[in-house]
Amino acid sequence: MRRVILSLMAPLMLIPSLPASAAAILGAAAEEPAAEAEPAVTGAIEAERDANEDQRIAERIRGIFAAIDSLSHIEVAVEQGVVSLSGTVAQPEQVEQAAAIAGRVAGVVTVDNRIERDVAVSTNIAPAVDNIVAQSKGLVRMLPLLAVALVVAALVFWLGAWLSNRKALWRRVSPNGFVAELLSSAVQFVGVLFGIYLALKILGATALLGALLGIGGVIGIAIGFAVRDTIDNYISSVMLSLRQPFRANDHVVIGEDEGRVVRLTSRATILMTLDGNHLRIPNSTVFKAVILNYTRNPQRRFEFDLGVDADDDPVDAMEVGVKAVSALDYVLDDPKPVARIVEVGDSNIVLRFLAWLDQEQTDFYKGRSLAIRAGKVALEDAGFALPEPIYRLRMDPRSAPVTTATSQDADREKASMGRGQRPADAEATDLRPESHVAQMVERERAETGGDLLDSGRPIE
What we know:
Blueprint: H1 2-13, H2 20-37, H3 53-66, E1 75-79, E2 82-89, H4 92-103, E3 110-117, H5 121-164, H6 167-173, H7 177-203, H8 206-226, H9 228-243, E4 251-254, E5 257-264, E6 268-272, E7 278-282, H10 283-288, E8 291-293, E9 299-309, H11 314-326, E10 338-344, E11 348-358, H12 364-381, H13 405-416, H14 436-447
Parallel strand pairs: 2-3
Antiparallel strand pairs: 1-2, 4-5, 4-8, 5-6, 6-7, 9-11, 10-11
Helix pairs in contact: 1-2, 5-7, 6-7, 11-12
């Protein structure tokens, strides 16, 4: 494009009557595309310089260094735009500072930095002492402001603690004691943070709060990974206190552990085993475990197996056994007792009898035991054989049979026993539920506190 315009301008230049303004316009049009096509190189070194340029650069740099006490004694020399710095400074960062200042002056081509650090004791100790003295004076001047900041922070801390101790207020906000305690602790924690923020705001050091929060966040993440089991247990405690999966003194099975519930604390569930021992289960385990509660429904089914001879009619045996179990006073009529054939064994037919009782009136294990006896006696009285396992033995003819007086006496005693000789009737047996462990739990609950179970809340 530029060549085309110049070729068009060549004949016009030969015309003497062409106005100068027209030639200037055409020349500008020719130069503008050239500027777009060939942009200037940024930071290029000029081919020609003023004779006094180096002197002006040197004076400018010396003037700047003179305004800075730590750089006032540095020697400056400039030749062809190259700045040479020499001398000594007390701190290593001042070396970079001098080079950076010199490089920012217009016309400087490069900086030859020959400044060295002065390692003399007197040179380095004095600035440090002056710095400490200056900071001490500044701290003394800030003492009134610091006192005001501490007073404000203390007032906010006290207000947060006062609100946190209003137990009745948090009980009204949340009926759950554990959640109320969490709200109380959260209010106190927020009060502490707000007090620190106000103190730093008064001192003009809010940037420090951001740094502290950042450090606290990193530390919190590290601690969270380290104590994740504790956090899991804590959250499980909150959920259990809200869900209320059982009541105090309930007979439960948690996983493989069985007992009566003593209390639910913020860390563990306390059980009283049926042997009278304390069992502490972490709440994280309780929250994830399968919980079997025997107390929720007073009606409970029991079952037992009896075997009759393979030659007997199992249906008749089932009818006899069910009739005997139904005759027991503590066995419920609704649902009625039933029986079923479980399997046919090698020498007998196994029958399973099932019946229901009320746990609040009858002890489960006592009732089941008497039902087993009643079914066995009824089958034997009806002529059904309850065979034992049969084994086939092969005797070595070289061995003589061995008989003892003990075995002969046992055979005679067994033969002389009549089927009418039976233990005492069920009516003479105390079938009331076992309450010793339940009473132990009630006594302990009356003596100690700290229970998160609330009988007024609905149970899950």
